Amino acid sequence: MTTRFDQSPSADGLWTGLRGLDGQPCAITVADGRIVWTGAPDAVPAAHVSLPRHEGGGALVTPGLVDCHTHLVYGGQRANEFAMRLAGASYEEVAKAGGGIVSSVRATREASEDSLFASASARLQSLLAEGVCAIEIKSGYGLSLEHERKQLRVARRLGEAHGVTVRTTFLGAHALPPEYAGRSQDYIDLVCREMLPALHAEGLVDAVDVFCERIAFTLAETEQVFQAAQALGIPVKLHAEQLSDMGGAALAARYGALSCDHIEHLSQAGIDAMAAAGTVAVLLPGAYYTLRDTQLPPIAALRAAGVPMAVSTDHNPGTSPALSLLLMANMACTLFRLTVPEAIAGITTHAARALGLQDTHGTLVAGRPANFVLWKLQDAAELAYWFGQRPVRCVVRQGRIAEGAL
Ligand code: NIG
Ligand code: FE
């Protein structure tokens, strides 16, 4: 398939005139699509001096951004629920009235694979144009083998077509499908015994997630899904303590979870368990903002415990129709009081770790695939300062100048 990405120019050569996040001048050499050297401009290896030059003109350079929690593939949209909430209904009331996740399930089941690909492609392009080089995409709007497969296949196709690293997460335990009303255990059995093994065998599952919440699945059901994932050697993560403290984070930490996400109601015991397990805390200010939540995630305690904090869009049609990771960094600072360096680490280094990609993404290190962004900015703090604009000069993704130009 011919795509715009395939036609974009190679980034091989010597990149000079750059400034790192520390404000210091730096240079990068790219060969065969990988970073082979990075350092001070006066230390460029002699063998690299004659390579083709890409002159950055003093541009700020960062690692490619990583969006580590999205529900990017779905049918329809839910602006009507936005209106219901404005009229006073809560997220839980909307869900109980037949809206919420289940209404996106209806629209996703009705949509063809190609139409899901087209709508998700358009959304993905917004994120890519802002510097995203790796993204997690969850299923969870199919809730049957056929339709979860369709979502995950679209996620894989998006990665190939757009030249972006996609990590797929199976979120079969997102909500109880209507045909299983009152039969939660039967559905969890289906998830564990049929859906997960089949989708894993098809190479569609990089991680497994559960929505552990009083409007979704219990702690015991969550553990059953984790056991099924563990038996297949698949890493887990969790939608934990978003609306209440279910003890999900501590459970997830016991299973060595990559991340616990949302965590507004996280307890100190949960924080301690995450710190001990090396589990990343994924902060989702877009959902907090959309739901007009008032319970702040325990940032100071996470910081004190040394839990790495990532920041993500949580793009989804219900609670976070956000398509800007920089806006999420801004909100993480403004709403959650992250420092700017924390917010930047949250959309790069720590986000990569939340996906198990810490050895290939999220930092500028020789030997890694060339994924980096040149910004039309003077100061690193501007990354989290502006909102509503796209200050990208160019994006090098998978070794190509995929967005913008020098
Ligand atoms: O991350 N919390 C559960 N899942 C999504 C919401 C999905 C939806 O409402 O469609 C989230 O916020
Ligand atoms: Fe989510």
Automatic annotation (TrEMBL):
GO BP terms in the entry: L-histidine catabolic process to glutamate and formamide
Keywords noted in UniProt: Cytoplasm, Histidine metabolism, Hydrolase, Iron, Metal-binding, Zinc
One Pfam family it belongs to: Amidohydro_1
Domain Amidohydrolase-related span(s) in chain numbering: 60-401
One cellular component (GO) term of this entry: cytoplasm
Gene3D superfamilies: Metal-dependent hydrolases, Urease, subunit C, domain 1
InterPro entries per UniProt: Amidohydro-rel, HutI, Metal-dep_hydrolase_composite, Metal_Hydrolase
Function, in words: Catalyzes the hydrolytic cleavage of the carbon-nitrogen bond in imidazolone-5-propanoate to yield N-formimidoyl-L-glutamate. It is the third step in the universal histidine degradation pathway.
The protein, known as: Imidazolonepropionase
Gene: hutI
